[in-house]
Every structure is written in structure tokens, then in C-alpha cells.
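User: Second chain of the day. Same drill as before.
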Amino acid sequence: MRLKKYTPDTVGKQKRGEAFIKMDAVGLITFSTRARDMIGLDKGMRIEFCRDEDRPYDWYIHITKADEGFKVWQNGSSKLLAVNSAGMVREIFSDIDTVESRETFMISNRPVELNGEKFWKIITDKGLKTGI
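Assistant: Same format as last time:
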């Protein structure tokens, strides 16, 4: 018999209470409760994903007042907020060269401010394995 051991080090760690975003290839993008509170997201708001053209691995989340943004929705009685876009997930996964169908990324707890607006960095260089 050959047993393969699974530990937090081999499957990845996810700390409760951390600000993170989960993405899967079918386009479901969900925000942890901490991320929701930190960014100030609420159901019905709209967000944009922004990429730094000088640093293509650097992606940001931005709350927008524009109608063109991705509409944030809430799943039933759950506190989790989400947006849907398979195309957006493909763009991000392509830029960070991932072959995974699911990824979880931490979100920086300090926004970058540009022209008086806040942009929250998605930390794409440290994908978390969470078994989602």
C-alpha cells in the first residue's frame, strides 16, 4: 500500500478572517467576508478589474459608479458577495500564466490611490490552494 499524505503544507493554507478573492474558470468570482468589509462592497454595487499595463501581473479591484462595471450580487442568505464573468477570469488567469481551473488570491489591505479613488491589489503571485 502507498499512502499519500495531505497536510496544510501540501494543500495550502487559508486563514479565516483574511481578505481574499476566489475565481473559477466558469466565471464565478467570490469575495471573503473580510474582503467585502475592507473594500466596502455591498450587493448591487459595481466593480471593475484593472490591470497595470506596465506590470501585467498586477491586477486591482475598483468600486465604480459607472453602469459598465460588474454588478455585485449576494447568494441567497449567504453573506458572500460575488460577480460573474468567465471572460474576466480568463484574462486574469492568462496574464498570470495559471493552468488551474480555480484560484484564490489575497487582497492587499492597503489600497493604491489614484486620482482620489481606491484600487485594491489582488496578490496574484501568491495563489492560495483552498480546495474550493
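The beta strands are 20-24, 28-31, 46-52, 55-64, 70-71, 73-74, 81-84, 102-107, 112-114, 117-128.

User: Great, on to the next one.
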